[in-house]
UniProtKB/TrEMBL annotation:
Name of protein: JmjC domain-containing protein
PROSITE patterns on file: JMJC
Pfam families according to UniProt: Cupin_8
Boundaries of every JmjC domain copy: 129-283
Organism: uncultured Sphingopyxis sp
């Protein structure tokens, strides 16, 4: 068995997840090839896509070098700081009642936060600190010029994640995600979107909804369906210089494997709003369908399967194309008219 990786003399603990099937990996693609990867809607590890980053060179050197680099870009904007007590062992998750989380959030100065995170490296029984979702375009705008990402549109603003050995419970994103590791190692455990029933996701009204299962130590007596989720899972362990593309809605558990870790990620993708937002429609469906009698539920399930998730060239083939309306390929004016109709209806 290989020796566990070490940083600053500290061994990173092994996990049963390390032996699971791996996410496919490839070299840096051209922008057109990357668009094809996104269209395929499958996770992939990408190597060599940001090798020229100043931040990556600093992160590969040492925590102190990367912290000094980031502090040199600081313009005084407070940063979002998450902190979990030592008893949480780095696990950012729900508390027992699922009303609160195991971590607190506040804003703090960047320089002092970086110094505190660095000072906790190697300390036993120390709290876990992490800067999460820091918008670099606002807080450290020079970062974008010195560390460009050619694969993504300019409005896909990067965010910084930096801290200790955090383990973030399984969740998903409504946008595509490109995560680029610049210091330490991170393990991503990914589950396809259709595994939602096997992941035991928590309440939707306490965002972000998280899985209740610790994938590194699952309680199969309490969560028996999680075995099926693990059977569908794939794992990727990223070193500094590696990136991973995660399509929207793919569930992922993220573990920072070393005492100091840093990552920059990008979320992007056209996000519909109002009555065309899939999430809004899903919430409306909970109101409209869940409490209907069984026969009515079966009718609407068949309607959705046929006309929403089915092939319109099959389900509406018997209707002349000019008369298909919402059942066919709507023109822009037809979409706008339907949007106005629904907007008026939801105001009632």
């Amino acid at each position: 068995m290989a020796e566990p990786a070490r940083i600053d003399g500290i061994a990173a603990p092994s996990s049963p997840l390390d032996g699971m099937p791996r996410v496919a990996a490839r070299g840096a693609p051209a922008p057109a090839d990357f668009a094809a990867l996104v269209a395929a809607e499958m996770p992939v590890v990408i190597k060599g896509v940001f090798d020229d980053w100043v931040a990556l060179a600093a992160g590969r050197h040492s925590p102190g070098r990367l912290n000094a680099y980031l502090a040199g870009l600081d313009r005084g904007t407070p940063v979002p700081l998450m902190e979990a007590p030592a008893r949480a062992r780095g696990r950012f998750a729900y508390r027992a009642d699922m009303r609160e989380f195991t971590f607190t959030k506040r804003y703090a100065p960047l320089r002092g936060t970086l110094a505190r995170i660095e000072g906790l490296i190697g300390r036993e029984d120390a709290p876990t600190l992490a800067i999460q979702m820091l918008p670099l375009a606002e807080a450290l705008p020079d970062f974008l010029r010195q560390n460009p990402m050619s694969l993504l549109p300019a409005d896909a603003g990067p965010k910084l994640w930096l801290g200790g050995a955090v383990r973030t419970q399984t969740h998903n994103d409504r946008d595509h995600n490109l995560a680029c590791v610049i210091a330490g190692r991170r393990r991503f455990t990914l589950f396809p979107p259709d595994q939602v029933a096997n992941l035991y996701i928590g309440p939707l009204d306490n965002p972000p909804p998280l899985s209740l299962v610790d994938p590194e130590n699952p309680d199969f007596d309490r969560f028996p369906r999680f075995r099926d989720a693990l059977a569908a899972a794939r794992v990727a362990t990223l070193d500094p210089g590696d990136a991973i593309f995660i399509p929207r809605y793919w569930w992922h558990h993220v573990a920072s494997l070393d005492p100091y870790n840093a990552m920059v990620n990008y979320w992007w993708g056209a996000a519909a709003t109002g009555v065309e937002s899939p999430n809004n429609v899903f919430l409306a469906a909970l109101l409209a369908f869940r409490d209907l009698p069984p026969g009515e539920r079966a009718y609407w399930r068949a309607m959705f399967d046929t006309h929403v998730f089915g092939d319109p060239e099959v389900s509406a083939a018997h209707i002349p194309e000019a008369l298909r309306g919402a059942l066919g390929a709507m023109r822009p004016d037809e979409r706008a008219a339907l949007r106005r109709q629904l907007t008026a209806a939801f105001r009632q």
